[in-house]
Amino acid sequence: MIRVLVVDDHPVVLAGLTALIEADPLMTVFASAASLRETESLVVNGEPDVCMLDLQLPDGDGISLGVMLKRRWPASRVLVLTMASDPGAVIRSLGAGLDGYLLKDSDPAELRAAIHAAAQGSTVLGRGTSGPVVVAATVLPDANPLAALDARDREILTLLVQGLGPSQIAGRLFLAPKTVRNRMTAMLAKLGVTTREDAIALGVAGGLGA
Q: What angle separates helix 177-191 from helix 196-205, to the nearest 10 degrees?
């Protein structure tokens, strides 16, 4: 039986997710909450297999809550469920070590399948996610594309993850802007991607820029 913790501040969404989970004979609602504070104060026996968290809570951020729950229950899988189809939020979720990102307009069958897949150890990405997110999700500890980068590449990628542009990076590293642009082109080839956004996604997933 897959035990699911559900956190959402919208009563209708919370009721709908509860009904969806309880309708599946292989799942049950472990606990539910409507805020970060309420979730932190839960007193429960055991731990959930999967946590489904709203991205925007009245008193905090679902990603931060997910990180906290991972510390509390290391074996639990954490999925972010939101209306926001935001590549940046998805990349932040994966970079923080969470296990998936789903949209609230997903159909019930997709949500049920996502919970089952997460419980089995898969990273789950709902429809509508962007190319950079897919790239980030494919990074595995034993097959890290960042291993192809030299020290200077890592410096540049770290600064890209932190939000700096090529000219700012050139100033920070005392390099000519053209040198930075040339190195960025070579770095994309080393990573096997075609856009700066894809490279940033890999950097986030690889822990750079934290």
A: 70
Domains of the chain (ranges; CATH) run: 2-129 (3.40.50.2300), 145-205 (1.10.10.10)
| Terminal Cα distance for the chain, rounded | 36
d(CA 178, CA 167): 9
Confidence (pTM): 0.65
Per-residue pLDDT tens for 52-83? 999 989 988 888 899 899 999 999 999 998 88
Residue with tokens 């946590």: 51
3-state helix, strand, coil in the chain (%, to 5): 50, 15, 35
Please name every residue paired with 27 in a beta bridge, in sequence order, or none if there are none: 2
Residue 48 contacts residue 72 (beta carbons within 8 Å): no
Question: In this structure, is the dihedral angle defined by the CA atoms of residues 29, 129, 137 and 82, taken in order, positive or negative?
Answer: negative
Say if residue 53 is exposed, middle or buried (CB neighbours under 10 Å; 0-12, 13-18, 19+): buried
